[in-house]
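Lecture notes, unit on binding sites. The following record was shown on slide 14. It pairs a sequence with s-citryldethia Coenzyme A.
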Amino acid sequence: MSDNNATLTVGGATKDYAVMDGSVGPQVIDVRKLYANTGMFTYDPGFTSTASCESGLTYIDGDEGVLLHRGYPIGQLAEESSFMEVCYLLLNGELPSKTELDDFITTITRHTMVHEQLTTFYRGFRRDAHPMAIMCGVVGALSAFYHDSTDINDPVQRKIASHRLIAKMPTIAAMAYKYSVGQPFVYPRNDLSYTANFLRMTFSVPAEEYIPDPVIVDAMDKIFILHADHEQNASTSTVRLAGSSGANPFACIAAGIACLWGPAHGGANEAALNMLREIGTVDKIPEYIARAKNKDDPFRLMGFGHRVYKNYDPRATVMQKTAKDVLEKLGVNDPVFDVAKELEQIALNDPYFIEKKLYPNVDFYSGVILSAIGFPTEMFTVLFALARTVGWVAQWNEMISDPAQKIGRPRQLYTGPTQRDYVPVEKR
Ligand code: SDX
């Protein structure tokens, strides 16, 4: 608690509300007794000024462009760590020892296969189904296959479900891709790293051996780290809300996947690359900048802007550098990257974007890299969901362990009709 209170006078009655301190970042006013004291609700559509929970996982300073996972800056984790190590950190709160990391990787590796009956599940989809539609369906169905890890009150089952979700997402994602291109599913291999295994399940074919390119493995692992967790974003809040009712972890993560699919959220990476391709050449940029500024035009610069970052998204910094490195190492000269860099420069010097503090976010450059690696744009949000699963799972576990948590049930400002009597149809 802080040593100062917030005082609110409503209808002539004055009440104090406790101000709570975090370890860093904005304080919060504890308004849990507001309705009992005043008969009033707070009103905050989009939750721009609302802390939904207490969390120790990820801290974001939107003004300073800071992102910490359990205190470690995202730039250091992206350069020094690995996605498996970041998974361990998010789940357990501390960086692992070598032995702890090896044991964790072994555990995850041994959960990468999916129930063979699940392969039949895919056959119900059309081949041209969007892979995110397949992800929503297949992940939601996992509770039908792994019912032995759905008791959320059993910490052992919670741990197994957490490991199963992190381990099986690459397999499920790769199967969604294979199904869409009409190629056979590829089983995971226990002698490959998490990320190399995913790339092999995605791109290998029975007709020839597939050796994952270390450059691509490193870039993919970095991209997974950059997408691992991000405080109480829309999809994480969806997972927490679903979990607050006691829903099983597979259903909660499926809810998160559905929310992430939206173009204002995780779907922005697919939309951003499609936008860059539509712009096509640098000389077309001014036309699209004008459209983005036109209030009557619904067009927005996809990959730009953020609810929290009013400065540069630190993940975009790493992503742009990774894009440059990967394109150079792969010898790919994608004009879309030039359009992206020029668009960024023009937008960052345009008064509209400066005034509204609109900067590139994590989704602006990721598509350039994913396209160079060989993923179709429809797979981009699937990759975001794959990486974000550890964040969703860590936040879900934290919520269940939080004694202050109860079922999420917001109220409303009602502006509909007041009570009136039913009128039979013959009298209307
Ligand atoms: C992610 O929350 C997270 O942490 C999400 C995420 C994560 O890791 O989980 O970081 C991942 O979702 C990143 C964001 C990806 N989305 C996009 O790139 C889509 C394009 N961006 C916008 O839709 C928008 O910026 C949002 C949704 C990201 C944020 O919207 P806000 O915070 O609700 O801000 P807003 O929509 O109220 O916009 C503020 C102003 C508006 O103008 P005014 O009404 O004040 O005149 O800025 C304008 C908007 O019109 N604006 C844009 C713009 N984004 C905002 N104008 C042009 N292009 C844009 N991209």
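Take-home: Residues 121 and 241 are 27 Å apart (CA to CA).
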